[in-house]
Amino acid sequence: MWGQQRYIAVDWGTTNRRAWLIDPTHGKLESYADNQGLLSVPKGGFEVSASDLRSRFGDYPMLLAGMVGSDKGWHQVPYKSCPTDLADLAKGIFWMQGGSIGIVPGVCQIDGNADVMRGEEVQAFGALQLGTVAADGLVCHPGTHSKWVRLQDGLIAGVQTMMTGEIFSLLRRDSVLSSQMQNEPAANHSFDEGVDLALNGAHLLSSLFQVRSQYLLSTRELDGASFASGLLIGSDVRAGLAAGHPRDMIAIVGNQQLSTLYLRAFERARFRAHIVNDDDAFVAGMQAIVDHLRVVQENAS
Amino acid sequence: MWGQQRYIAVDWGTTNRRAWLIDPTHGKLESYADNQGLLSVPKGGFEVSASDLRSRFGDYPMLLAGMVGSDKGWHQVPYKSCPTDLADLAKGIFWMQGGSIGIVPGVCQIDGNADVMRGEEVQAFGALQLGTVAADGLVCHPGTHSKWVRLQDGLIAGVQTMMTGEIFSLLRRDSVLSSQMQNEPAANHSFDEGVDLALNGAHLLSSLFQVRSQYLLSTRELDGASFASGLLIGSDVRAGLAAGHPRDMIAIVGNQQLSTLYLRAFERARFRAHIVNDDDAFVAGMQAIVDHLRVVQENAS
């Protein structure tokens, strides 16, 4: 029965997957990560790929979330539309293999700007569960696509996606700016300069070209990668704060390196924010869903 | 002597080159275009590539402009910094082969935001020469990088570059939006929708993702390429108008297809603009420089 026995929680994304063996009482027992994201799983190969995780952890039930529930994943699970809560997510789980494997649905926004997410909803509820964000708080998930999740009375009320990370990668890999963008972006003076420009409403399409013109004119030293990163993250933060009706304290849920850059941008914007480890938030969210499943099962029996 | 004999004018860019045989009295006699831009010329191969043009048109003096004068071109010619006029450009020409081949310098902006251009300055002066833009007018050059050129008393007073076209190409070729962006962008309803959003200050990083979320949620038909193009061009036009102290009438100097999209965006922004053929503007600008060379030579003799 869910909530009484060990289970395997999997954050299964496009590029990577991370898995944990979880004991409802003692929490995380083991963890495992590899690059067997959707792009690396051959057609029809998800069953084998999931069995592989079971052979590592033991033959426990599995709860999956993330892009594994998308049209490019194992099975497409319909989005829950916001406002939505944990009970909605639990109800929307798609069960396979006699109920021993479930995929948690993503969340969509229909009203206003159409938007979607898969995986971040679990992290957002997890951050709430951990007490790291208020029931009316704002959660910023940096990443290839950053996701801004608005909470309201403990429900997910809205989501907004920004293509920040992807555009940074495209510019770095294959644009006229590439050769000036090969450093790892860091929270240095060039980064701050980009953030400040963006926070003051500078135009992105134009400001990005500064990376090239400053280089050509050699007017001064500019760390192109950090400057461009600052412009993009600053622009992201500016729009996210404007759209998200900023609250007292913002939770940044993401990996350490990227979260640190966002934290700096929030500081420049004079907003209080703090970093929540994305794995911790994910595991807490999955456990909250499992707790909910247990209650439902108890009430039914 | 320049201004009395025929010459070959070449707009030599990164990807393409276009050349014209020009008679100072009768104007364009012949034209030729190929894809022998900088990227296709082997190291040390510019002399041969230029000879090839002479073998087509005859052994006339040549005047070159565009990226051929950049660090990646035949010879790096220092920028003239604005404010700058035709006389400055003529003075800055780098002469080779005993004065039978010259490269016109580009223009840079040092004050305010650093910026640069090579080739558009010739077109801007050409548009002025043709009477298609006022001496205090604003010229918008759409392209991989769009360039906004501010004229003041017939001088080039400022330039602003936007990475509009390049970001569109990157998104179309290799992003999560690619499969929804394979149409040729057109001035249709989706384009207008993108333009209007951008003109109203919508956030680019977020609005672009609509291409994907509208597709996933199938809420309605959206031509992704035209919508994204509208967002980017609308954003470009909004910033260009804001920075350029908009005048009564704006000249769009570019190829027909792209210029038509910009014209539509100006219409949505309720600004009067008109399209000037980029080749005509270039040839007129080169002829104006040649006229200037003639006067200088006459005064010197």
TrEMBL record, chains A, B:
Q: Which InterPro entries does the annotation name?
A: DGOK (IPR007729), DGOK_C (IPR042257), DGOK_N (IPR042258)
Keyword annotations: Kinase, Transferase
What start-end ranges are recorded for coiled-coil regions in this protein?
none
Annotated GO molecular function terms are: 2-dehydro-3-deoxygalactonokinase activity
One GO-annotated biological process of the protein: D-galactonate catabolic process
Stored Gene3D superfamilies: 2-keto-3-deoxy-galactonokinase, C-terminal domain, 2-keto-3-deoxy-galactonokinase, substrate binding domain
Which named protein is this? 2-dehydro-3-deoxygalactonokinase
Q: What is the lineage of its organism?
A: Bacteria, Pseudomonadati, Pseudomonadota, Alphaproteobacteria, Sphingomonadales
